[in-house]
Amino acid sequence: MSTFTLPNSSPPCPVKLVPELSQEQLLSFPAFKTWISTFQHSLARQQSKDHTFHTSPYKLNSIDIQTVDFFGGGRLGFVKLKADVSNDKGEKLPGSVFLRGGSVGMMLILQPEDVVEGSEEEKYVILTLQPRIPAGSLSMVELPAGMLDDSGTFSGGAAKEIKEETGLEVPESQLIDLTKLALSDVDQKSGEQLQNATYSSPGGTDEFLPLFLHQRRVPRSQLKELQGKLTGLRDHREKITLKIVPLDEVWREGARDAKTLSALALYQGLKLKGEL
Q1: How many angstroms separate the CA atoms of 264 and 255, rounded?
Q2: CA–CA distances in Å: residue 184 to residues 73, 187, 194, 264
Q3: What pLDDT was estimated at residue 234?
Q4: How far apart are CA 108 and CA 112, in angstroms?
């Protein structure tokens, strides 16, 4: 195992690597870059007299890389690390981190063309059923979503995932970023430098999900064709079945999926405020 000092760290922060991971691989890993930049910004904010921890600020003392997973082609996929964070009183903060980076979630609302335009009647949402081994499920009901591939924009990634998971082609310009709309004033008040996204489980992972909305009127026959349709990239081992659910039943059908409930809450809240 090798150790190096994290660049621009104060106090100097040693980083212990596992044999299969190099310093260059870690420092170029987008998830690590985003995480460490965000955390260092949060630590620096303690200098403000108004900060909760100003009198006993916390410091990042060391980082211990515990294990890594690589994707096809040798691309770094996941990193599990332990960050030692404490203050001068010896008080520590929990520092187990599973780094996987950003994903995108898409709420697709379809309405039959024979319904009066502008009506709220007969709106449907596309959900997916797919194996999710970490949850112990072979048929998890959830919002269409996918990991970002570190290229392009969040909205471009969302459009790509919509095509892969549903077969629908949606121009990037027709996607509404629900999380960005909802958070437009929040960060100015908090001073945080987090992503314009929902964090799925911030007690253990850095994963963040910008949630997008696309609404479309379609032939009623297309709705029937989408119900139960098999999709997904087979060479990526994706096995996805589409499920068309009435909008007013999404809260129940997608109750186990945090991103489904988050997207629904954002959609309803923004509509209530007249921002959609």
Answers
A1: 11
A2: 38, 7, 12, 18
A3: 46
A4: 13
